Each structure stands twice: as C-alpha cells, then as structure tokens.
C-alpha cells in the first residue's frame, strides 16, 4: 500500500478529492472541495467502535468490513457510476487508515488511478494550523475601528464592491462578534471549519495590496482567531469609523430585531452580562425587554456596555489608533461605494507618497 500513499502537497494533481469519513466528521471540517462518500454512517461507526471495545477487536473489524464493503458497493453504483476509466481520485479518512485504504485498494482493482492521502485528515489539519501561524504575517492590513453599530461591516462590504481586498471575519464565523451577535437561525462553524475557511480566504489575497479588516476581539462567538492574525492587525494602520449614537441605536434596533421578537431568549442573553454589570442593571434591561421599550434598551446598551467595552479594548490593542484616519461614514446614503472609493484613494495616495 505504501506505493499508493501521497502527501498533501500532491492533492492538486488529482481529479477529485474523496472524503470517506462519516457525515458528522465531514461537517465538522474537510479539505476544501472534497466530496463526502462515507464508508460508514454516523451510527455504523459508533456500532463498530462499541463492538471493537466491548466484544472484541476481531468482531468489530468483521462487522466494520461488511458495512464498508456494502457502502462502497452502493457508492460504485451511484456516486461514482459515471467516473471515466482514467479517473484519478485522492482518498482520505481520519488518519489515512483502513477506511481510505479499503477504498483506494478497491478503486485500483477496478482500474482507477486512486491514491490515499498519507496521514489523512490529520495531516491536512496539521498543515492548516501551520498556515495560521505564518500566512497572516505575510499580509498588510488596514483595520476599521469603531464602536458597535457604526456599520463597519457595511463599510467593509462597500470596500469590497469598490475593488479592495477585504477579510470579513464575521461572515466566516457567522456571528457579529458582540455578546448579542448570534445570527438568527444560523449555527456557527466549528473551530476547525472556521480555521479552514480563514486559511482559504488568506491564500486568495495579493500580498502586494492591503487587506481591509474589521477590528475584532480574539473570540467571535464560539470561534477563536489565531494569535498570528491578531498580533499582526493590532499593529496595522487604522480607520476610525464615526457614526452618531442615534444612528447606531437605530441600526441596533434593526439588526437585533429578531432578538426582540423572542423576549425570553433576549433576556437570557442579557443574563449572561451579570459579572460585567451589576445584577440590578441587568434586571433593569430585562424589564425594558418586558415592556418592549426597544429604543431605550438600545441606547442603554450603547452607553453602558458597548461604548465602554470598545474604549477599553481598542486603545489597549490597536497601536496605530492615535494616528487613525477618521471617517464619517454615511451608511444609509446611496453613495456608500463612492465613499469607499474615496477611502481607497486616500490610502493609494499615501502609499505612493511613501514610495
């Protein structure tokens, strides 16, 4: 079998990458572009593992082999029925063991030029972690800094439309970053999946051009940013996005409307702020929820929670903030892309002056 093993660096040489792990393993994370063709279902993998430990390794292996053979046969009759004779797939499982080995062997017996990924998904995960330590340092960032509700994400989108390189960490994390920032009905990716998405995004950038990024804390909901990225953009040039408190409150009311539609869930979220704020203050906010006093709650959260947290965090972490360009962003105007283009012109002219 050793002659059928290939390293991760050779993955681009193949027609298709096939992940034969369970759907749950695949959903947690997978090599970009891989097709999931599980040789064991989620339940079957549990059955095999339980039998292996509680009955005997032989019995677990026998049952597993029967299930794998049956599932491979199904894939041959369905998923892979139209693959040509000269098809070259790369097969992987968790660590390059029996699951991917079985498929690779059988595919080669059929006549396909299949190969097995040496080390399986674990080798890919190791490479991802190594990339997270090095890739962020190869790029030059410009950080959009501003308090919650100043529409930094909207400006980031406008910059993207204007042709800038942008890294939207909140989109990758499926979370707005704040304590109340969960996306309605959208689960966050696993940490492993987020890491994969982040590395894929970083690899798309041209190191010769700046990357605009929104200021974030280390955690965005349940996922964590790599230290190499944080350390690099904490030293980067900053744009301070200015917006009136009234406009910010209006935005929060719009963006968090789904929370007000579920008062008990919102009150539970506010309950988590005890420790950051006194119990009495949090209970006061919860009463505002009960009384449907949305605007008052939005102003309270901005004044007593978001703005103090922003002041502490931004001045502590962003070394270039005292020298930041101040931008009065008008997110509700029709010319948001033109505003973004003006910002790009500023940085282009500054770069030309340095050269």
Automatic annotation (TrEMBL):
This protein's name: tRNA 2-selenouridine synthase
Alphabetical keyword list: Selenium, Transferase
UniProt record, GO biological process: tRNA wobble uridine modification
Keyword Transferase applies: yes
Classification lineage: Bacteria, Pseudomonadati, Pseudomonadota, Betaproteobacteria, Burkholderiales
Origin: domain of life: Bacteria
One protein family per Pfam: Rhodanese
Family matches, as PROSITE patterns: RHODANESE_3
Enzyme Commission code(s) on record: 2.5.1.-
Domain Rhodanese: start-end pairs: 17-133
Organism, as annotated: Paraburkholderia saeva
Gene Ontology MF term list: tRNA 2-selenouridine synthase activity
């Amino acid at each position: 079998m050793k002659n059928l093993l290939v390293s991760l660096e050779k993955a681009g040489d193949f027609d298709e990458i096939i992940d034969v792990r369970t759907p749950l393993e695949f959903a947690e994370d997978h090599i970009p572009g891989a097709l999931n063709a599980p040789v064991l279902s989620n339940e079957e993998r549990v059955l095999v593992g339980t039998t292996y430990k509680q009955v005997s390794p032989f019995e677990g292996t026998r049952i597993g082999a029967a299930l794998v053979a049956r599932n491979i046969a199904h894939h041959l009759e369905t998923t892979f029925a139209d693959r040509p004779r000269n098809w070259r797939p790369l097969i992987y499982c968790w660590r390059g063991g029996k699951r991917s080995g079985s498929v690779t062997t059988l595919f080669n017996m059929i006549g396909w030029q299949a190969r097995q990924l040496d080390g399986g998904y674990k080798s890919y995960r190791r490479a991802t972690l190594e990339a997270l330590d090095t890739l962020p340092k190869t790029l030059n960032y410009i950080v959009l800094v501003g308090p919650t509700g100043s529409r930094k994400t909207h400006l980031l989108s406008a910059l993207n439309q204007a042709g800038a390189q942008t890294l939207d960490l909140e989109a990758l994390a499926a979370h707005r970053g704040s304590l109340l920032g969960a996306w309605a009905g959208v689960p966050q990716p696993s940490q492993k999946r987020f890491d994969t998405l982040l590395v894929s995004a970083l690899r798309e950038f041209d190191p010769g051009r700046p990357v605009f990024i929104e200021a974030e804390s280390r955690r965005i909901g349940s996922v964590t940013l790599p230290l190499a990225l944080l350390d690099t953009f904490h030293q980067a040039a900053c744009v301070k996005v200015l917006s009136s408190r009234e406009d910010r409150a209006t935005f929060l009311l719009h963006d968090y409307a789904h929370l007000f539609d579920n008062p008990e869930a919102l009150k539970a979220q506010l309950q988590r702020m005890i420790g950051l704020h006194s119990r009495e203050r949090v209970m006061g906010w919860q009463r505002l929820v009960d009384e449907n006093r949305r605007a008052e709650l939005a102003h309270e959260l901005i004044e007593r929670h978001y703005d103090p947290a922003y002041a502490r965090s931004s001045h502590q972490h962003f070394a270039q903030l005292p020298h930041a360009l101040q931008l009065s962003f008008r997110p509700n105007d029709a010319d948001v892309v033109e505003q973004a283009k003006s910002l790009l012109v500023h940085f282009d002219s500054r770069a030309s002056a340095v050269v």
